[in-house]
Each structure stands twice: as C-alpha cells, then as structure tokens.
Amino acid sequence: TQAPVGPRVYVIEVSEGDHRWTVKHRYSDFHDLHEKLTSEKKVDRGLLPPKKMLGKNSKSLVERREKELELYLQTLLLQFPQATPTPLACFLHFHLYVSEQLLQAGEVFSLRPLQLYSVSQQLRLAKPTCCNGDAKTDLGHILDFTCRLRYLKMSGTRGPVGTSNIQESSLPFDLSVFKSLLQIEISECSAQQIRGLSSLRSSLATLSIHHSTEAMMSILVPESSEFSQWEAEGAESGCPVTAVIPLWKSLTTLDMSHNGIGTIDGSVKLIRKVEFLDLSHNQLSTVENLQHLYNLVHVDLSYNSLRVLEAAHTRLGNIKTLSLAGNQLDQLTGLTKLYSLVNLDLSHNQLAQLEEIRNIGSLPCLEKLHLSNNPMCIIPDYRTKVLTQFGDRAAELCLDGTATTEKELDTVEVLKAIQKAKEVKDRRSSGDKKVRSSSRRFTYIKVQINNISFILYIQCNVFKIRGN
C-alpha cells in the first residue's frame, strides 16, 4: 500500500506474474470486502485493522495504517493460495486484468449471448492491442482471457433485453475464440446462434445444451447442412462422401436434456468416448444408434415417450446405470440381457403385471431398482412379490430406495417355497392327466426359516402351513 492520494484513499499496487496494475480504495471499501469474506469464506473478523478516528490524518497513523492494510491483503492471498475468492478478486481488479489465479481456479465464468456477440463483433474489426493501458480500446486482455478460460456458461433469454428492442435469441456468437475450454453449458440459445462450437472438438470434455435444439445433429455436426453425404473420421464407408467430419476426441459427458429432440441420429458416431449421456426430458419414442458409443456407462432416457425397448443390450452395451423413469413402458422383455446393469429406474411408467419383473430378475449385478408410481405398486404385498422374482439375490436388492428387511426376506422364502411347490404340482398334474385316483394326494415341501421348520401341504390348489 502506498501513500494516500487525497483524504483516506489508498493506492494498491498489484502484480501477477509479469502483469502489474494499481487499484484505488477507501477504508470503507476494505470494510465492505471484509464483511463479504467473513460471511462467505469464514475469514477471521479481527483480521481487518479497526477504524480509528483520533489523529487520522497524522503521518505516523497513515503509515501504520498502510502497513496494516498491506499485511491484511497479503494474509488473505496466503489464506487462499489455490483460488482467490470472487470478492477479493474483484476488489483487486483481477476480473479486468485476467489473473492467472482466476483462470485456474476452476470456477465457471458466465456470459450472455449479447456480451459474447459484442466481443465477437469487436474482434472482427481487427484492431491491434495498444500499450496505453486503456481497457476500452485494448483487446489484449480479452484475447488472453478467452484463450485460457476452461469453464464457460452461456445463458440466453427469450424476448427483448431489458427495455431495449434487442432480441438476444437472434444474435449469433462465436465460440472459436475460446481455445482451452474443458466444459461449456449453453441454455436458451437457438442452434442457429451458436457459431464455432466445432472448433472445440479436440479439447471439450463436457458439453451441456438445454432449451436450445430439436436435433442432436445441429449441435454435434453443424457442418451437416453444407454436405449432402458425410462420414465420421476413421469410419469405413461403402459409398462416396463429400466430407469427413472430425471426432469429438475428448468428450466424455454429453447432456442434452430439456430440449425437443425426437431422434437419436447418426451424429453420435462422432462422440465415441462419451461415458455419461443424458437425453432426459425430450421427445424420444425409440432408442437408436447408441451402439456406436462403446464406452457408455450411465444413460438417462427419463421423461421421454418410450413405450417399448427391444433388445436394449444391442444398443446400450455394458452400461451400469439406466434411467427410464417417466416414460410409457408396460413391458420389460427388452432388458433381459443388460448383464452389467447396477442401477435401474423404472418409476412413473405403466408397468402393471408382476410377471414383467421376471425379465430383470436374473440380472446378476442389479442392486438398485426403482418401481414407484407404477400400477403394480397398488398390489397387496407388492414389495415382497417383487423381491421374490429375484430369488436368492433378493437380499442384495434395494427397492425404491429402501433396503430389504429380514421380515421381508422371511416372507420371500415362504413365497418361493409356495411357488416351487406349485411348480412341482403342475409338473405332476401334466404327467398324470390320464391317471385318476380317488385317494387324496398331497404334495409337500419343507422349508426352514430362522431354525423353525415349516411343512407346506398342497391339495386342490389350497395351501396349508403348519409349524413342525
């Protein structure tokens, strides 16, 4: 902190690498900063030197206050070595001069389409950077910022901006100025606005698009409108193509939920490394083309218009998590071979028959199953009847977020014994159709639960349980 300029105004010299600048603040600014840091970051309230009234203009007091405030700022920077808190970064004008700490902090930087449109238009004028320190005409810090930013969020609006006649949804913006983005989230922006997204194919790891498109192709292959025939890089094509489209080489997470997507189109051939795919809250009626995604682990297809899934394993491969909640499924025959599945959400569908559970009852890795808000849930003893379909694995299953209890397992054992006895009776009945006997026949099976033996007698489809 240098000598005051005017009454109680302090000039702070800030250095960040090779960059240096000055910031002017009054003591009240320090106080406001401290209030934010104590509430948001739990900074020691006694760290800021107190305001003193007597002799406030004396040279000795000013010099001591300078040293105290400088020590205060140095202490804060040492307290947060990895990521400078936003209030402190703004206080020191890091947001104006692009601090390395701010860029590497891992925080998401938010922009409006109108702001990026303005930057894009300004950069198109090709004005050189200048050395006079005028941030209004010097674009060097903006270029430096866009080249190093890693996390970006773009949020548009519907309708005019404020009281103006500017329609933000009609303003195109260029993402090609960002050279190091790892993650981007775009919402409330039409696909026609977004320019330069394809330039991020080599670096982007996470892509989220919401309320912005009706086709995956328009986002993943914006060049498709220019070429009648195209093929993904490295793919073998039996017919001539007019373009070879590069792959999204680093993309592992794709979230295109809350859009108007009706089809999983061929653009997914370009995202072969995707592990997490979220297409929830769209308008899908079929599941196609996902066989191209060999690395899929988690898939969310909830709240679409799916009525049936046929041979799901041929499209979904070895996924571990699958959400099909909020669809119109009434049968599960297509899920029988998803052998790697661990977590399955089937809530809010049209499943009415308990027999459908048999299609997933033999899945060896299934641990979590959600069936709430299906018609079958009103069946008496619904939980135990569902758990019975999993046989010896009933104890390993968590149904509707609740682990299986010992009491339920006891009931399951009884139901399994009854079911087995019925199967034995049915086999005997089918083999003895021509043999009639006037004597009574009993089929019984013995089951032991908690060291107590039960003998189940079956006669004329009437079951009797007697403790022994």
Q: Could you walk me through the main structural features you see in this protein, from its secondary elements to its overall organization?
A:
The protein has 468 residues and is of the alpha/beta class. Among the domains are: 9-88, PX Domain (2-Layer Sandwich); 409-467, no CATH class. The protein is built from 12 helices and 21 strands. The chain has helices at residues 27-40, 59-79, 86-91, 94-97, 100-104, 113-124, 140-148, 217-220, 313-316, 358-361, 382-388, 406-431, and strands at residues 9-16, 19-26, 109-111, 151-155, 173-174, 183-187, 194-195, 206-210, 230-232, 243-245, 253-255, 276-278, 298-300, 321-323, 343-345, 368-370, 398-399, 402-403, 443-449, 452-459, 462-467. The chain has a 12-stranded mixed β-sheet with strand order 3-4-6-8-11-12-13-14-15-16-17-18. β13 (298-300), α9 (313-316) and β14 form a beta-alpha-beta unit. α11 packs across α12 (406-431). The longest helix has 26 residues, at 406-431. Residues 1-6, 98-106, 437-443 and 457-465 have low confidence and may be disordered.
